[in-house]
Amino acid sequence: MAFLYPYFLFALAAVAVPIILHLVQLRRAKRIAFSNVKFIQVSKDLTASQRNLKELLILFCRILFIVFLVLAFAQPFIPASDAAVTVNDANLDIFVDNSYSMQRMHSEEDLTMLEVASDQAKTVLDLFPASTAFKLSSTSRLNHGAPLQKSEAISILDQLAYSAKPFAPSLGESIQASHLFIFSDFQKSSLKLEDFKSKDASMQVHLIPVSAAAASNITIDSVYLEDEFLRTDAESRIHVLVTNTSNDLAEDVPVKLFMQGQQVSALSLDLPPRQSTEAVMSFRATGEAISLAYVQVEDYPVEFDNTFYFTLSSSAAIAVTEVSDNTASLQQLYAGESFFKYSSYTNDNIDYAKLAASNIVIVNGVKALSAALAANLSNYAKEGGTLLIIPPVGSDRGAYTSLFQNLNMPVRFTGAGAGGAKTNLMAPDPNNPFFRSIFSDFDAKMQMPTASRSLSWSRASEDILRFRGGSPFLSRFDRGTGAVYLMAAPLDETYSSLPNHALFVPVMYRLAIESYQQQQQLAYTLNNNIVQVPAATKQQREGVYQLQQDTLAFIPEQQVRGGKLYFTVPPEMEKAGFYTLQLNDSILTTLAFNYDKGESYLEQYTPDELRTVIGSESGNIHVYDYGDAFSIKGEFEKRYFGVKLWKYCLILCLFFLMAEIALIRFFRT
Prior knowledge:
This protein is α/β, with parallel strands linked by helices.
């Protein structure tokens, strides 16, 4: 302990005054009145003991009154434990985490964690003079980082709302601050502790964890269509992935599907702890160009992730282009269905523009494959198209070798003839997504087609059908942004019995449907870096694209290339829901945006875990225990300002003065 004004300690000599008065008072004779001689000695002893105790207590109070009065003027204090670190009043930063995970209730108060964090931040403001300028920041930029006076900072803290952005304190902007205070729940799913360790050691970082009452939450992670090809007025199914992040079983959780504002499906789920459960919901697509849909669950108090928005649009017809020596050999297969747009060409009569615009190109048994066609097919696949290659009858390789080389596919011709031995195919794997919804009742012992191999290969991206023995019959090769499917035998009865088998039609339909790609995703997240959608037509191309929700309009960073619009989600977009993409006054499409799901996983670091992960080598990072605003203020003052004791001395001084008065008035002898 030290004293700010130690010279006042000489005044402790005044303690001698009450001692001298006490001794003088003992020498004075006292008259004792009594009523009966019988009680003289007893009355004398009793009165003397009471009087001596009272006088000693009064003396004690007077001495301590003078001692603490002198100490109050001397202003004692306990020196700061980090006295070497100066506190620059002109360079302080306070970061308050206002992400959606702070919706939870505090463990000890009937307030949200954001309200408690704001109250604790106000206490930090009280540590410094009223003239101090603070920098106040959060997950969303506040006041553009301009310095604030105490009253302005308090006003902003009172009005602080939740932000869709995850917890990521911008320490780069605070590098010049001498002290940075961070109030957060410190989620394990989003916190990057290396950000704290990599900063200048001269900046003192104070981590103040806010304790949550519970870490339970139910969130909708994602949705996807069972079949991307969506038919109008046909029953479709959507898969909803629901996650229970708590350690307790959640029973009978209602899940509801809405389309165009109307509920179309509902079910209840039992969600095991810390697991994801997939719900399958049926619906019928309407004739609307784009249907606005969302899935909703009921959960409290973290409600931001209870709704997942997405858009549905009926699929356009799938463009199937066949290149074959026999014109329209697959026409009967595809032309009979309205959702296929079939066209066919021979090797020497091809519209390459229409070929490039096709969803799938089927090269069916072309014997003399030209070099020009091979080059175009290679580029088509690498640029996102789907290519199916069915080998020709005979051993004429044409330009197949160069096509396979350009696609980097390890394929060779076996030289098998029409009379070669045929091998049975293995039953398909019913769990393979390629065969979903094909089998109503799967029989592993079904009679499979036979075929003789004209082509052989290895190292495919996926083998869809295999011969008995394991050799591939139908495989997929991922090349560039597209896919190449390769069949081992021609569609000729002398080579394969597949064309006459019940499996032929569903496999060929699935290959065409797999080639279909939605022009836009069902949904996007608000922190997506880049969003890609089809650009406007040439007649509408001039102008600036913007996203609009109700009366709010946002102009993103944008670029148009290759018929695609690429834009970055504006940081100011913080509300989930539906946004229309507009060019000038024309509405091009509607996009659905959802909150980032990282905030839904609420498990947080405890103060001890933070200290363990940070380590003792980071001397400039200080982790505070859970507590109220008063304890945090006291710990900071003790560390950097020291503990001022003069207030306590003054309180004790007044206490002993009141004690003396009480003894004189109420302690009667």
